[in-house]
Amino acid sequence: MKAPAPGPDPVLTAAAAGGESARRTLLDRHGGLVWGLCRRFSPDAEDDYQEVWEKVFRALGRFDPNGPATLSTWIATIAHRHLVDRHRRRKVRGEVVPLGDIPAHDGVDERIDGQRRAERLEAALARLPVDMRTVIVMHHLNGVPLEDIAAAEGVAVGTVKSRLHRGRARLLELLGGVP
Amino acid sequence: VSRYEELSRLLDGDLPPDEASALRERIARDPQLKAEWEAMQALPHLLRHLPEEQPPAELNEAIAGAASAPRPARARPWVAVAVSAIVSAAAVAMFAWSEPAEILLADGSQLVEGDVRVLAGDRRVDVDGLALVTVEPPAGWAGVDGTNGPDAAAAKLAGAVVTVTVYEGTATSTSMGGQRERVSAGQTRIFGEVDGGSSGSPVVSAAGGSSDAALHERIAQLEGEIEKLRFEQALSRGRLASLEGEPIEWPSDVPAAARPDEFEKAFRAALAADPRYEILEMDCAEFPCLVSFRMNGGGAEGEKAVQSLVRSFNDAQFGGQAHALQWVSRTSDEADSDVYVGFGLIPDGWHTMAELDTRLRYRMDSLMSAVEPRLEDSP
Fold first, then answer.
1. Which residues, including other chains, have CB under 8 Å from residue B129's CB and lie 6 or more apart?
2. Which pLDDT score is estimated for B148?
3. Residue B377: pLDDT above 60?
4. ipTM
5. Which of B11, B23, B63, B360 has the highest number of chain A CBs within 10 A, making it the mutation to test binding with A?
6. Which of A16, B35, B125, B240 would you call most buried, defined as having the most Cβ atoms within 10 angstroms of its Cβ?
7. Does A179 contact B2 at a Cβ distance shorter than 8 Å?
């Protein structure tokens, strides 16, 4: 016998209606995800963070918990669309590639020293061109399917795949082959 | 396609079967390639488990607290300051480094700096510099709250006495009837019905005597505020300097290819091969040289051509060992859009200079800020 589809999540319902406590719950659960995207892609991370959440709260009533996307993927997609739109409006498609050194792999066992490894990875991510960085962050860090990224960017899935492969390759180059 | 890229395609099953099996055979034979394959396999897992940084707690508080109310942001600047300017008897504010602002001032004094329009009483004062604007409202003005807009406020404030003292630059006062009068640096001018007069009083020097002792006492107080605010401004500029970095002298032993004459000559020669390239600015005042250039009608393919150009130039001049600093932008997504590029090469060994990162970001931002209006103006 097929289990009935779960009913509406009371937190989402309350947050969509403007409930402060419910909104706080969503911010606690998913704030890190949105913040991660904003700080990696926006020169005005705090402004964009607030604007993304305004959009999320406005659109919450349309989220389908029985649909293909999890809530976190759905929120990440809204954040992504917002940041892409912002980026286009600025019409600045390039960026200054930071020169900050990526800490060298110094033989320390980074399987143990996770913090150091994370720092190296973040430094390398920051040096990726924005199109590659977008795909890597959205897909690997936030679990957004390549098809959804392509739709938000308005490009073919093949283009997104190509950016993913070039992005991974560039990351490994920057890390000297040792992630 | 690079070796790493091939490995990435293998990871996702995006290589044709024959290429995939050939690559797997090479991996089995080559320990170096095997290590790289293992690194590629580990990469998605490592990325997925990067620590998640949390937003500032007060930001979440503000968003949750705003509940369903829309965020009152990006209002016209004068709206934001109007309330405080109206209710304050002597509001003092500096508007340095801000976009042109419009301030509604119904009563009291406002010190303004920069390109600011003050709706002072029943007239408009356009300041370009540093000026003190004081409004003494007519009797019965208290009903003015600014919520009906500046015109309604001005109508209620007809007959106010407006004093403009200019310390730097100029100010232009425009009455409701459209009469314009200019006040220069070092001058004070009083407009309105003072001593039965109907318009601007004779010009008095900012330091000169006036029959209105109380007004001059207030001006003296506010001049003290100017000094204080200038001091704070100087502190802010100090903080700004930490963002700009210090100019970097040319190192004496930098490779010849990086030196201004050689760099400029070689770079101009590299661009000469394609008539679509046009150099906009070459900045070799300090180390290293930065250049901005445009590729007319290059489009997306142009971006690739630029990357190729940079690589070739690096190979030819620095044996491929220099570190590139690039800023690439297109006017639109159209195939024939112009491509704007900011570019610099830092010879290997010099790229680790401690102060270089901050300074280069600042210089590149400055160089490319000249380009941004062209991007904004494009269709």
1. B113, B166, B167, B168, B169, B170, B171, B185
2. 52
3. no
4. 0.79
5. B63
6. B125
7. no
Q: CB–CB of B181/B172 below 8 Å?
A: yes
**Interface test mutation site (partner B, options A88, A93, A122, max chain B beta carbons within 10 A):** A93
- Which among A28, A140, A165 has CB closest to B48? A140
Among partner residues A50, A96, A143, which is closest to B71 by beta-carbon distance? A50
HEC string for B93-131: CCCCCCCCEEEEECCEEEEEEEEEEEEECCEEEEEEEEE
- In sequence order, what E strands does B219-295 have? 277-283, 290-295
pLDDT average, residue stretch A18-39: 90
Hunting for tokens 């991007």 — which residue is that?
B375
Contact A96 B378 (CB under 8 A): no
Cα A79–chain centre separation: 7
User: Which three-class secondary structure string do you get for B293-306?
Assistant: EEECCCHHHHHHHH
Nearest residue, CB atoms, B50 vs list A24, A121, A164: A121
Rounded Cα distance, B183 and B177, in Å: 18
Least confident window among B58-62, B170-174, B317-321: B317-321
Q: Could you list the beta-strand ranges (E) of B19-58.
A: none
Interface size, chain A vs chain B, as Cβ–Cβ contacts under 8 Å: 147
How far lies B353's CA from each of A4, A9, B324, B357, B378, in Å? 64, 54, 15, 8, 38
| pLDDT tens per residue across span A67-93 | 777 888 889 888 888 887 776 655 433
Report the residue from A24, A93, A172 with minimal CB separation from B40: A172
- pLDDT value of residue B118: 84
Determine the distance from the C-alpha atom of residue B167 to the mean position of all C-alpha atoms in its chain, rounded to a whole number: 26
Please report residues of B whose CB lies closer than 8 A to that of A97: 324-326
pLDDT at B90 over 50: no
